[in-house]
Specification:
Number of domains: 1
Shape: globular
Strand order of the largest sheet: 4-3-5-2-6-7-1-8
Distance between the termini: 43 Å
CATH topology: Rossmann fold
CATH class: Alpha Beta
Strand content: 15-25%
CATH architecture: 3-Layer(aba) Sandwich
Number of helices: 7
Order of helices and strands: HHEHEHEEEHEHEHEEE
Largest sheet: 8 strands, mixed
Structural class: alpha/beta
Radius of gyration: 19 Å
C-alpha cells in the first residue's frame, strides 16, 4: 500500500515514523526543514482514513492551514478535508480537519470557533478520532505561544495519538520524555540529514555574495 501511495523510496526516518504510527504510538519527528516531514503527516492521514477514522491536522499559522487545506483536498478529495480557523469554517464534518493550533485548543475546551451562526464545537474527540498532527511542533518552545501546545497535549484525550512534526530542536529527548509522561508511550525520530543544502549569502546594491569564503559553509 505504501508503494502505491508513495512511489518513491522513503527515507529511514520516514519509515521509522510510519512504524510508530502503525503501532498507534505517539511520535515526535525532529528533522530539518525540507527533509520530508509532510510525507509523515500524509501517512498518518491515510492510516486514519483506511480505518474509517478521523484525524486533525494543526499548524501555527492560518496561511499554512489554508495551504494544507488546499493541498490535502487535492490528495484526498474535496469532500474528505475540512478547514477550521477563526475566519473560515468549511466542510466541518469532514474526516480530515485542518485548523490552527489555537482552534484545536478551543475545541478541547469546548469553546465555539466563531460567535455567529457558523460557530461550531466538533464532537470528533470521541473514539472515532485516531490522531492529531501538530505541524511545527517546535513552537512548544516559543516563549509567547508555547503554552498553547502544552495545553493541547495535556488536555488531548489519551486515546488520540499525537504526531509532532518539528524542525531540528536542541531538546528533543526532553520533549519526548515529557510527552510520554503526560500522554503515554512516545517514540522519538531524529534526522539531521538536510537534502536541500542551505547557502548563506548577503546582499548589496551590486548583487548577492557568499557570506563565507566556502560557499557551502555555514555558521559554526
Amino acid at each position: 500500500l505504501m508503494k502505491a501511495l508513495f512511489p518513491f523510496t522513503l527515507d529511514a526516518f520516514q519509515v521509522e515514523a510510519l512504524r510508530s504510527i502503525l503501532k498507534s504510538r505517539n511520535v515526535i519527528v525532529s528533522a530539518p526543514t525540507g527533509s520530508g516531514k509532510t510525507v509523515i503527516s500524509e501517512m498518518a492521514i491515510w492510516f486514519a482514513l483506511a480505518r474509517g477514522r478521523k484525524v486533525f491536522y494543526t499548524s501555527p499559522l492560518k496561511a499554512l492551514s489554508n495551504q494544507k487545506f488546499s493541498d490535502f483536498q487535492q490528495i484526498y478529495g474535496e469532500e474528505t478535508v475540512g478547514l477550521l480557523t477563526g475566519d473560515v469554517v468549511r466542510n466541518r464534518e469532514a474526516p480530515v480537519l485542518v485548523m490552527t493550533t489555537e482552534v484545536f485548543r478551543n475545541i478541547l475546551y469546548g469553546e465555539a470557533i466563531r460567535e455567529d451562526e457558523y460557530s461550531y464545537v466538533p464532537s470528533k474527540l470521541t473514539g472515532e478520532t485516531v490522531s492529531v498532527i501538530f505541524d511545527e511542533f517546535h513552537y512548544i518552545n516559543d516563549p509567547s505561544r508555547g503554552t498553547v501546545w502544552e495545553e493541547c497535549v495535556i488536555n488531548c484525550p489519551k486515546h488520540i495519538n499525537i504526531v509532532g512534526l518539528s524542525a531540528t530542536m536542541a531538546n528533543p529527548m526532553d520533549l519526548k520524555d515529557w510527552l510520554a509522561g503526560v500522554h503515554g508511550p512516545t517514540d522519538l525520530v531524529v534526522s539531521e540529514h538536510r537534502p536541500v543544502p542551505l547557502r548563506y549569502m548577503f546582499a548589496t546594491n551590486k548583487g548577492l555574495y557568499p557570506l563565507f569564503r566556502d560557499a557551502e559553509a555555514g555558521p559554526g
